[in-house]
Design brief:
This protein has 236 residues and is an alpha/beta fold. It has one domain: Glutaconate Coenzyme A-transferase (3-Layer(aba) Sandwich). Helices cover 19% and strands 26% of the residues. The strands form 2 sheets. Strands 1, 2, 3, 4, 8, 9, 10 and 11 form an 8-stranded mixed sheet that branches. A 3-stranded antiparallel sheet has the order 5-7-6. β3, α4 and β4 form a beta-alpha-beta unit. The N and C termini lie far apart (61 Å).
Amino acid sequence: MANKLYPDATAALDGLLFDGMTIMSGGFGLCGIPENLIAALRASGVKGLTCISNNAGVDGFGLGLLLETRQIARMISSYVGENKEFERQYLAGELQLEFNPQGTLAERIRAGGAGIPGFYTKTGVGTLVAQGKEHKDFGGETYIMETGLVADVSIVKAWKADPYGNLVFRKTARNFNPMMATAGKVTVAEVEELVPAGSLDPDHVHTPGIFVQRLFVGTDHEKRIEQRTVRQREAV
């Protein structure tokens, strides 16, 4: 078995980065994002990035860190409403944006990982989403064609991993991470806990190690809450 273990995020990304590359970044909101890897991308200075991610982080955290340093040139996303710097750059024409319905984005990534170059969906028919896309009728219904997505590097965050790169995700973090792990030419996994080989129940593995080329144990995960909503306690 080739050694997949690296000491930290910087080492795990060594030799993979180049200007103008496409990166998939896992996570849903701020849950399950590869915090250490995003910080290492920022420190690397790589620029002109196309980032495929459901969200664009928030100001000062997640992919918002790369927006601050102007390292992202284009976003392929579903929801970006929590980031004022994103809004400013987009409205100023400084950042390209390809919006996707959330389910369409998920399926485009899954399709890319499965080697499917395109598929038809009803989502977006008759809206701006459909402009410039091939239309086709099936059973009397109109569908539009969407293309599969792949990335030069996928960066994902997992709960547990073994040395072979088998990954287990936890709760909401099992969102875009598993499908992105299949759609990267190289997948780098940031994990919270490394367990011995053979200790993971095969039925509980979400991403088989064949999809993971590099991994490391992350540190100092903040795990921020994107929107904290509280209410007053009722009087007893």
